[in-house]
Amino acid sequence: MKKLNLIYILCIIIAPAFFYSCSKNSTQYYGDDKDTGISIFTNKGLNTMSCYVNSSPWRTIERTEGGFYYTRNYEVYVSILAGQNGNDTLQISWLGNFANILDPFQGSYFITAKFTVPHSFSYPDFSSLQGKKLTLDGTNGYFSAPYQNPYTAVIKGTGNIYFNRAQLDSISLGNNNGIIAGLFDADISGFKITNGRFDNNLDGINAVLAR
Amino acid sequence: MKKLILLFLSIILFTKLTKAQIYLEPIVGYQNGLNNSGHFSQINSAIQFSFIPSRKKGSPFSLQFQKSWPLAYHAVDSSFSLNPSLPLYSPAKKTIKASNYSFSVSKHFKIYGNQPTGTFNIVLGVGVTHQHILVEYDYDKSNYTVLNPDQTQDITNYFLSGGVEYIKTLKVGRVFAQINFSTRGGKNSYPTSFGFMAPITLNIGYSILIKNKKK
């Protein structure tokens, strides 16, 4: 009887550790030899964005899934906000922090690119961004950072963005599949962003073009 | 360097003590990494000690130190710029030089022939290799960023080799030719466009008798 109780106690202690350890990290980070402190520029869905913010390396959090309470943490979100005068706003937000801060969830914030798009903008139109180099000059779009709420535009700036890959397919309700990869830089009132490169997979949770 | 000298001295000491017939064999050759579409080529230079046992039924074995010198491979990767006044795309010239050191021990098994006409042997070996694959880019680094860039890679690992050799005894010494296949040096931890080499090697050498068999 005592042995059985000991086994039960051991199971209760070990089980949480087992569940906690079952987490998956979908981010692959490879440092750039030339631009130290940030990742290389890739288009393989490595789930990372990095840049220099005022010459300091800045990186997105790692994309993880699982753990004891089963959580999902994404480093990028793509959404569309309904606007006025027949125009909506396509929004790409990356969540991260400076690379020398060990715990990425302490004070993580968003760097966001916002594009003015027609009200009819949908999934095939997203894919038409592929291969395009755009200048966001404040009228056709803008950058904002650092800010902890991507849905409130407070600090606006201008910049350039290039989509080497842009694809988002809607397979069924809540089941999307896609990727974005490219380069960007921005000048946002006190924040100068340089050497930005992103490479992110999109799915039905972090990329939904629904108003 | 000190370890190599120590190893050499150990071999010289071993040659003094053993009863086997010993040849010192300088080797030159060429090798190509089959697993990289033949892009990585090298010129080989090696020193080999071959030991022919005094017993009739013993098969020879050899110790080989090889240094492989790279032949440059040139390619082009894509680079992109955000500068609105520059073209979006520019080619980034890439040069890759794959070199390596290796130390191996091999056993030679006669399959056909007799001296002085010549013998064919199967050669099976095991060794350690250090591969250094140097990657250099030439492009406008201040305005452009390379997509999926390769980076210099290094690895030290074990390898297995197998092949065939032909040996012909001359009036003085002997000549031989070998063709060998080796296993890959290891796996990349970085997403390069290439893998570590699994070379096919073509070597020729000349055997200098340095110690006759003890009777």
What does this structure look like?
- The complex is a heterodimer of chains A (211) and B (215).
- In chain A, 12% of the residues lie in helices and 49% in strands.
- Chain A is mostly beta strands.
- In chain A, strands 2, 3, 6, 7, 8, 9, 10, 11, 12, 13 and 14 form an eleven-stranded mixed sheet that branches. In chain A, strands 1-4-5 form a three-stranded antiparallel sheet.
- The longest helix of chain A has 20 residues, at 2-21.
- Chain B is 7% helix and 61% strand.
- Chain B has one helix spanning 2-17, and strands at 21-33, 41-52, 61-71, 73-80, 89-114, 118-138, 145-146, 153-169, 174-182, 199-211.
- Classes of the chains: A mainly beta (211), B mainly beta (215).
- Chains A and B meet through strand 11 and strand 12 of A and strand 7 of B.
Indicate the topology.
The complex is a heterodimer of chains A (211) and B (215).
Chain A: H1 2-21, E1 23-25, E2 48-53, E3 56-60, E4 64-66, E5 71-73, E6 76-81, E7 87-98, E8 109-118, H2 123-127, E9 133-136, E10 141-147, E11 158-172, E12 175-188, E13 191-203, E14 207-208
Parallel strand pairs in A: 6-14
Antiparallel strand pairs in A: 1-4, 2-3, 2-13, 3-7, 4-5, 6-7, 7-8, 8-10, 9-11, 11-12, 12-13
Chain B: H1 2-17, E1 21-33, E2 41-52, E3 61-71, E4 73-80, E5 89-114, E6 118-138, E7 145-146, E8 153-169, E9 174-182, E10 199-211
Antiparallel strand pairs in B: 1-2, 1-10, 2-3, 3-5, 4-5, 4-7, 5-6, 6-8, 8-9, 9-10
